[in-house]
Fold:
Amino acid sequence: MAQPSTKVYDVIRSRIMSGTYAPGQHLVETEISQELNVSRSPVRMALKRLTQESLVTTESNRGSFVAQWTRSDINEVFDLRQMLESRAASLAAQAATPEEIARLQSLVDEMAVLAERRAEGYRDDLHHNNQAFHLLIVSAARSPRLFQFVRTLTDTSLTLGTYFYYSDADIDRSVHFHQDLANAIASRNSAAAEALMAAHLCLAHTAFEANRFGAAQQSA
Structure:
């Protein structure tokens, strides 16, 4: 049975990832404990864990806040992902098993259905499928250290919240790129897989900044 602090951690983390808790939002221990019907102790433990993961920041005499991302942070994360995941895609095209290739295609098929139907909450489902797709490629590269590096970069509110900043056109483009990547890996074309991943993440970076900062400027 999961510990109370683990359950609280899961709830807070999910809300940060989905954007329910916005960047910079004050996370008040008493309010969260009352809402989740737990004592403040598991809330405090959960916030400490999230602080260690850089999802939450803690300020002396002020409390805990959802971490905010600057343009410099965003550029750094996407640049590193492009370098590391492009290499991973190249290696995956050489080493992926038939089962992994089939799973990649299954994830793409699920994403295509989600993007077409656009049912309530579909962006949340899309970002879960997207993360699973990218991490499966890195896992198929058969490089444990590379996997850990990429997992650190993808397991952030910035990366996991990407789909919440995408336009409908951006989502359609992303699904097509995922299909092309799955095809390149299935055909064992390392060069194509590497180039496609680099282009995919470059365009994802551009779309993320345009929609996030463009919206912010329009509302300012």
Remarks:
- The domain at 4-66 is CATH 1.10.10.10 (Arc Repressor Mutant, subunit A).
- The longest strand covers residues 56-59.
- The chain has a mean pLDDT of 90.
- The radius of gyration is 18 Å.
